[in-house]
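Hi there,

I know you've been waiting on this one. I reran it after we fixed the sequence typo, so this is the corrected version. Both the input and the resulting structure follow.
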Amino acid sequence: MKNYLRLEEAFQVVVVVYFAYQLPYVWWWYWVLFLTPDISMVGYIFNARIGALSYNLVHHKGVAILLFLVGAYMKNDMLTYAGLLLYGHSAFDRMLGYGLKYSDDFKHTHLGWIGERS
């Protein structure tokens, strides 16, 4: 079942990249900015609770969809692009097994423990 979920996330990444390429930005900007959502891990400098909160806020697909929709409604390509970037990054993370974090440990995610085989 996990392989099907990873395939679904991979498909989402491909679809998001396609739509991002339709916006008026040079294609390589998507890949330059692709890892910027991981800056949200800086919250872990303080403690696991703040780290999980900041990480989950940036990696939540609902936030990405909201940014995309607001950008599309306002005809703001930058917000639309940011929503696509966040969504694609989040789908890529989930494809690799990195989910939303619990506040007890960075490796404890909604997809299970990072690094454990099932």
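Quick highlight: Residues 2-105 form one domain.

Best,
R. S.
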